[in-house]
Amino acid sequence: MALRDTDAAGVLFFARALAIAHCAYEAALQEAGFDLRRFFREWAIPIVEVQGRFWQPLYAGDRLRVEVTVLAVAADSFRLGYAFWQEGCDRPSFTGETRHVCIDPDRRTRQPLPAAMVAWLGNATH
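The structure corresponding to this sequence follows.
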């Protein structure tokens, strides 16, 4: 974890935890073969809800492994879970969730998830 991710007390700043989680989400999409440039042009799947919990402090220089897990899938939405594992620890230092909803970008109404997204979400952990 980088110094830029910490607050004045030297621990992970809460907003940066969400940014790190989002980077892990994007990395999981790329690993699955999604072209992110095309992905964000073709689909509007905004995050509509977030939550997180710090179980122990994380400091600049800590080595993290971030897990992204599919928690729930509906016709037009899904929830992802995140766990930040600090090297050498037997429990996560941070856990969080995001809820994403697929919308028609022009009409701003819900629409079904694209087939490619449903297929990706069929895997339990990324």
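The chain has a mean pLDDT of 92.
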